[in-house]
Amino acid sequence: LGLAVYASSLCVVSGAAFLYHDYCVIGAGPAGLQAAYFLQRAGRDYVVFERSHAPGSFFALYPRHRKLISINKQYTGKSNSEFNLRHDWNSLLSHDRRLLFRHYSRDFFPDADTMVHYLEDFASLLKLQVQYNTAIIHVTLEKNEQAWNGHYFLLTDQDRKNYKCSSLLVAAGMWVPNVVNFPGSEYVEGYETVSINPEDFAGQTVLILGRGNSAFETAENILGVTNFIHMVSRSRVRLSWATHYVGDLRAINNGLLDTYQLKSLDGLLEGDLEDLAIVKDKKGKLHITLRFYLENRNISAGIDSITLPQDELDNFATRAPYDRVIRCLGWKFDFSIYNRSLKMMPGKGNIKKYPQIKPSYESRGTRGLFILGTASHSVDFRKSAGGFIHGFRYTTRAVHRLLENRHHGVPWPSTVYPITQLTNSIIKRVNEASGLYQMFSVLADIILLRENATAFEYLEEYPIGVLAELEMQTGRKARDGLFVIIMEYGRNFSGADKDVFYYNRAVGEAQHAWQSNFLHPVIYYYKHLPTEREMKLRPPDWPLPRPDAIHHIVEDFLTDWTAPNAHILPLRRFLENCLSTDLRNFFAESCFLFAFTHQKLPPFCQQGYLRMQGLVGSRELRHHALQAGLLQDYTHTDFSGDRPPDSHDGSQEQLMRDHAIPVRPLQHLVNAKDE
What we know:
Blueprint: H1 2-8, E1 10-13, E2 16-26, H2 30-41, E3 46-49, H3 57-61, H4 81-84, H5 112-125, E4 130-131, E5 136-143, E6 151-157, E7 162-170, E8 176-177, E9 189-190, E10 205-209, H6 213-222, E11 228-233, H7 240-243, H8 255-261, E12 267-270, E13 276-280, E14 286-290, H9 309-312, E15 324-327, E16 331-332, E17 369-371, H10 389-408, E18 414-418, H11 422-432, H12 434-438, E19 443-450, E20 455-463, H13 470-474, E21 482-488, E22 520-526, H14 532-536, E23 549-552, H15 564-579, H16 588-597, H17 603-607, E24 615-616, H18 619-627, H19 652-658, E25 660-661
Parallel strand pairs: 2-3, 2-7, 3-4, 7-17, 9-15, 10-11, 10-15, 11-12
Antiparallel strand pairs: 1-2, 5-6, 6-7, 8-16, 13-14, 18-20, 19-20, 19-21, 21-22, 22-23, 24-25
C-alpha cells in the first residue's frame, strides 16, 4: 500500500520524475510555518521547502546585534487571549497554548536566538511537513487544463530533484542585500558581514549608508567607542511614533539622534547615494566626493589628482576622512529562481524591492502563486504591519481561507446572528480582535445583512483590497447590504513631518469622533457591494470607496470602546439609521404595550418576547428597573414573584408579575430606556 501511495504521488514529465503535492511552500520562516499550520489543520497535501537545516534561518543571522524590535508584552491586565495578541508581536497563530512567545522570553524586546528556538518548537511540536536542506533553485510552469489554475508549478532543488504542485506559496522572505553601486563602493562593508564587536571600532570615524533600523542598530552598537558617526541617506529620518509604521525608526535604536541634536559630533545627512563616490588615500582613509568630480578622471591615479568637494567648498560637511563605511540598506526579494513564464515582476517606485501582487496576495502575473510574509508587504507598505510577524500571521490566514474556498469549496468562516445582536457583535470585536488591530486599514470584518435585515452574517478579517470580489472569494452572498468594520488612524495624523505630541491632539467627545487621530474603529455602510470601478476611483488615502453612511467610534485613551454614552449609544443609533429599525433591548412590558400600539414590533420583541425568550422577572430585577426609570409602575403592586412562572390569569397585574424580561446581560439594562 505504501508503495502504491508513493507511486501515485510521482509524475513523469519528459522522462523526469516529479514528486507531487497540492501545495508547495518555499521557506520555513514564520510565514511559511504559519501557512503550513493552516494547511495541516485543514488536512491538505503540502510540503515546505527550507534551504537550511532548521526553520527561521534568517533569524539565526539577523538582526546582527541580536535584539529584536518586536514587542513581547507579558502583562496587559486582561486574560482574553485574542486581546493579548494585540501586544504580542512574535507569536504565530495556533491552537497550542504552549506556543505563545511569552513562554519563551520575558524580555520586552527578545533576543533573536529565542525566536529561532521558538520557530523550531513550532515546527516540531505541531509536526509540520518541512523538508530541510532543500534549496529551490528554479521554478517554472507547465500548462495543463486539468490543473487547478490551468497549470502546474515545477520546482527543482540544488540536487536536481523535481517537484510538482498545483498551488505555490512563496514565503522565502527578503534576504538579498540592497547594494548601491558607485565609484569606490568596493571599499564599503555590508551590514551582513561587518564586525559586531564594538572594540573593532575604537577610535575610528565611521560613515553609515542608510537610515533604517539596521543602520541605527549598527550605530547604537558602536556609539560609545567611535570618534564620531555620520549617517547618510536620500530621505529624512522617519520616526515610528510619528508615522505609526513599525518599520520606521524605533526608539530602542535612536541614540544617535540624541548625540546629533545635542551636538556630540555625530550627525545625519541627506543625499542620493548614487551621486556619491569614495576615494581611498595612501593611509587607507576613505574620502567622500561626488560622482561628477570623477568624470573623465582616472581614480586609480591617486587622490592627489582628484578634485574633492572641500577644494571648492571648504566647509563641506563630509570633508573629514573616514576609517570605515558601512552599508545598511536593507534587503530585497530574490527574483532569480523564477522562470519568465511566471511573470514575477518587481514593483515600481518605493516598492520595487517587492514582487508585484494583488491585494489578495496573489501574483499579478500567475494565478495560483501567492506571496506570503515579509515579501507581501507591498500591499500595505508604510501603512500597516503586513511585513512583520504580528501582521502577516493574519494575512497568511486570510490567504488560506481564500484557497479553501477556491480549491475545496469551503466558504469563508462566518457566524449568523439575529439583528438584535448587531451592536454587541461589533463592540465585542473592536475591543478584542487582534487582526483588525494589527492590520488596520487592510483587514476588515464584514457584516452581510440577511432576511430583510432581520439577521446578519459575520465574516472576520477579510482583505478590503478585494472587497469587490467578496462573493467570489468567500462563497458568501451580499444581497441586502453590508457593514465593513476597520481600524484607522486620523487622516492627517501620521507622517515623518507630523508633530504627534501637540496640545489637544486627542478627541474625547462622540460628536467629534470623525476627527479622532489615534487608532479607532470606523464602520462603513454600503447598500450594495462596491464594484471594481468604485474601488479604483476611491478618494486618495481612503481604504474604501465612499459609503452610503460612515461612523467613527471616538478614539479612547485605553483602547476600550465600551463606554455606554460615548461609544455604544452613538454606534447603535448609527446602525438603526442605516437599517431603519430599532435595535434597543426592551422589557416584556414594553413589548406587550408595543403589540397593542404598533403595527410592527422592534426586532428584539419579535425575536425574544414573542418567542417567550428572556429572563424570568424577580423582585430585585423589577426594583432595579423601576429605580432606574426603565419601567413604569402602573399598578403600584408589590412584585413578589410568589406564584409559579407558568401560572397566568390574563390580568395585567399577573402579566407584569410573571413576564419574561428578554434582556441580554444585566449590565445592558442601562441601554434599554425607551427614550
